[in-house]
Each structure stands twice: as structure tokens, then as C-alpha cells.
UniProtKB/TrEMBL annotation:
Entry-linked Gene3D superfamilies: alpha/beta hydrolase
UniProt-recorded name of the protein: Lysophospholipase, alpha-beta hydrolase superfamily
Domain Serine aminopeptidase S33: from-to ranges: 26-257
Keyword Manganese: no
PANTHER family, per database record: PHOSPHOLIPASE-RELATED
GO molecular function: hydrolase activity
InterPro entries registered for this protein in UniProt: AB_hydrolase_1, AB_hydrolase_fold, Hydrolase_4, MAG_DAG_Lipase
Keywords: Hydrolase
Length: 277
């Protein structure tokens, strides 16, 4: 496989890092992958490699405030920055991918970014995969009360929590890798928190307007994005071609979880079905 790294300029000329992985054989399609909060594109290496192995060109970038991209860790001024960055990235990808079928995959926060993006710019995307999207992110009542206030007073105020990788996966090798990954962070800000709250509310109100083919995947042992609300959200999605896959013993990162073979089997099969239409 061929790997390329580079940068592009997002909203407000923010310099954002990306990587592209191209299979050695003729590609079937191109996939844009959007990572979750505190993560970075390289943190999804297992997922990127599996997609490349199955003849997809894969593009992934570090969200602003994450990884090797610029910005205060875990901060956005407004949600439009995430949407605009992704749209600029998509335009670059499409200019390089010779009209191949385009798919979008988002995990956790990246799942919310991808879902909201498809409400606005979904035309031309062959299918969307949402992996444990932060639709059902657990938030304390006091946090829900304080976030809107703090987002107006000090939106870039940083709060760093202790990491607990066992919430993400049971795989000891993956936990070790996550713990040693210096590009990961556990920092949040009121600006991001408020943007996420508003966007999730918008998605819940307008779920019926998400009409492109969709695959929703999540683990039933996920304590970060509990499955009950994800099931409810799936019910209201307007797509006539939607599939939900649940995994009994998996946590927040099913692509890095023990028994992930089934997760990947379902993902690749779904992509192949979309290509056959």
C-alpha cells in the first residue's frame, strides 16, 4: 500500500493534517474517515488498514484541536468549523479520486460530525457509516446546565480528565497502544460541549431528513455512548436503506475490540452491497 501525509487548510485557514492510504490493487472506492474526540487519524490505524486491504483508498484527517492539526485541544468556536473543514477535505479528496464512489465513516464525535454533514452536504455520498456516534453521549445534569453559560463566558476553558482506556476496548494490546499514544488527549471545552449539544438536538429533530444509505454499528457494552438512545435515533432516521449492527461484548471502539472480525465483516459486506447497486 502507498501512504501519503500532508496538510490542507480548513475554515479560517486552519492548517489541518491528513493521511491517505492507497491499495496496491485497483481501488473499488474511496472512504473518508472522521475520528472521535481526543483521537486522531493515526489512532484509527486498524480501521484504515482493513479498508485498504479491501481495495478502498482511505483518507483521514486530524480534526482541529486534535492530533497534528492546529488549535486549542478539544476546542471549536462554532460547529460550522467542523462541517466546513470536512467539506473542504471532501472537495480535495474528490479532486484526487477520479470519480470513485465516495463513502463517509465517522466514529463517536466523528459520527456526529458525519451525520450532521450529511444533513447539509449528503448529495453525492454513496453511503454513511456511523460507529458509536456520540448521539447518546452521557452528560451530567449540572454539565448540561453549565455548558451553555460557560460557552458564552469562556468557550476555550479547558478541562482535562483522567484517561480510562478500558472504557474503549477490552483488548490488552490495544489498551497498551492507546495509553502510549502521545497524540491522544482528554481535554474538553465549553465551546465544543455546546456545539455538540446543539448539533445532537438538531440531528434528533431532523433525523428523518437523513436519507442516504446508512450503517450504524455499536457495542452493547459501550458506557460512553449507551446503546438505548442509539436504537431510538436509528428508528427515526429517514433512510430507506439503513442497517443497524449491535455487538454483544464490545465497548466504544468496536474496530479495536476483542472479536472485531465480525465488526469488520459486517462493515465490508455493507460497503460491497452499496457498490453493487
Amino acid at each position: 500500500m502507498n501512504v501519503k501525509e500532508g496538510t490542507f487548510y480548513g475554515v479560517g485557514e486552519a492548517k489541518l493534517y491528513y493521511r491517505m492510504i492507497q491499495p496496491m490493487s485497483k481501488p473499488k472506492g474511496v472512504v473518508i474517515v472522521v475520528h472521535g474526540h481526543g483521537d486522531h487519524s493515526g489512532g484509527l490505524q486498524n480501521l484504515l488498514d482493513k479498508l485498504t486491504e479491501h481495495q478502498y483508498i482511505v483518507y483521514a484527517f486530524d480534526l482541529r484541536g486534535h492530533g497534528q492539526s492546529v488549535g486549542t485541544r478539544g476546542f471549536i468556536k462554532k460547529w460550522d468549523e467542523y462541517r466546513g473543514d470536512l467539506h473542504t477535505f471532501r472537495q480535495m479528496v474528490e479532486s484526487e479520486s477520479a470519480n470513485l464512489p465516495l463513502f463517509l465513516i465517522g466514529h463517536s464525535l466523528g459520527g456526529v460530525i458525519s451525520l450532521e454533514y450529511c444533513l447539509v452536504h449528503g448529495t453525492g455520498i454513496r453511503g454513511l457509516v456511523a460507529i458509536a456516534p456520540a448521539i447518546s453521549y452521557k452528560i451530567k445534569p449540572i454539565e448540561k446546565l453549565l455548558i451553555p453559560i460557560l460557552s458564552k463566558i469562556k468557550p476555550d476553558y479547558t478541562i482535562t480528565s483522567a484517561s480510562n482506556q478500558s472504557l474503549l476496548t477490552k483488548d490488552p494490546k490495544m489498551i497498551k497502544r492507546l495509553n502510549s499514544d502521545g497524540l491522544r488527549h482528554n481535554t474538553v471545552t465549553p465551546g465544543l460541549g455546546q456545539g455538540l449539544l446543539q448539533t445532537v438536538s438538531n440531528l434528533e429533530t431532523n433525523a428523518d431528513k437523513i436519507t442516504l444509505p446508512l450503517l450504524l454499528q455499536f457495542g452493547l457494552k459501550d458506557e460512553i455512548t449507551p446503546p438505548e438512545k442509539l436504537r431510538d435515533f436509528f428508528h427515526f432516521i429517514g433512510s430507506k436503506e439503513k442497517v443497524m449492527k449491535e455487538y454483544d461484548e464490545m465497548r466504544h471502539r468496536p474496530f479495536d475490540e476483542v472479536g472485531r472480525e465480525q465488526f469488520y465483516h459486517d462493515l465490508i459486506d455493507w460497503l460491497e452491497v452499496q457498490l453493487s447497486k
